[in-house]
Write a structure and sequence with these properties.
heterodimer, A: 7-stranded mixed β-sheet, globular, B: 7-stranded mixed β-sheet, about 0% helix
């Protein structure tokens, strides 16, 4: 069965960096893009962007350029989200999703369990 | 960016009731509208894709319709396990955007 397993919670100080992993199983990793979705505490869902797992080409939503980097390692079917120069407002749950192509469009059909990143001095 | 607006922001209903959530897009998204359910402390899961198609394994009491800018999600015969927050999301064009969510509570 399809699974996306994310790395564990992180607590970081402002200015530090964090790298979140998302390891896929149960399907061909390079056949589907991976999106990243942020959810701040008590807030809604925000699409950060996605990465073509075949080419490694990322696309970032506005507001997630510069300090945010998506990457993949196809040898271990894993997508990564790296955030640098962390700020308190980066405190959130970060989800990876598998994006399924259907009839001309995509939807997020499987989600990781989420990785909580806490930024605090 | 396409703005997605849900109403109401929250609702409360009895077990067995039928409830409807509305999602409006700031411009047409044709049929490229999805619905997700998120229970407290859990990741979201997809209920409906391409406006009205039920994701495998989702109970048939969840139905949805709409096209263009106006969409609805209906839960008929509300069950205790339906207590959750529901989000609409457009995948017509990037950046994909979500509604702000509708919290459904059971009386």
């Amino acid at each position: 069965q399809v699974q996306l397993v994310q790395s564990g919670s992180e607590v970081k100080k402002p200015g530090a960096s964090v790298k979140v992993s998302c390891t896929a199983s149960g399907y061909t990793f390079t056949s589907h893009p991976v999106s990243w979705v942020r959810q701040a505490p008590g807030e809604g869902l925000e699409w950060m962007g996605w990465i073509n797992t075949n080419t490694g080409n990322p696309t970032y939503a506005q507001g997630f350029t510069g300090r945010f980097v998506f990457s993949v390692d196809t040898s271990v079917s894993t997508a990564f989200l790296q955030i640098s120069s962390l700020k308190a407002e980066d405190t959130a749950m970060y989800y990876c999703t598998r994006d399924y192509y259907f009839s001309g469009f995509y939807y997020m059909d499987y989600w990781g369990h989420g990785t909580l990143v806490t930024v605090s001095s | 960016d396409i703005q997605m607006t849900q109403s109401p922001s929250s609702l409360s209903a009895f077990v067995g009731d039928s409830v409807t959530i509305t999602c409006r897009a700031s411009q047409s998204v044709t049929k490229y509208l999805n619905w997700y359910q998120q229970k407290p402390g859990k990741a979201p899961k997809v209920l409906i894709y391409v406006a009205s198609s039920l994701q495998s394994g989702v109970p048939s009491r969840f139905t949805a319709s709409g096209s263009g800018t106006d969409f609805t999600l209906t839960i008929s015969s509300l069950q205790p396990e339906d207590s959750a927050t529901y989000y609409c999301q457009q995948s017509f064009t990037t950046p994909w955007t979500f509604g702000q969510g509708t919290k459904v509570e059971i009386k």
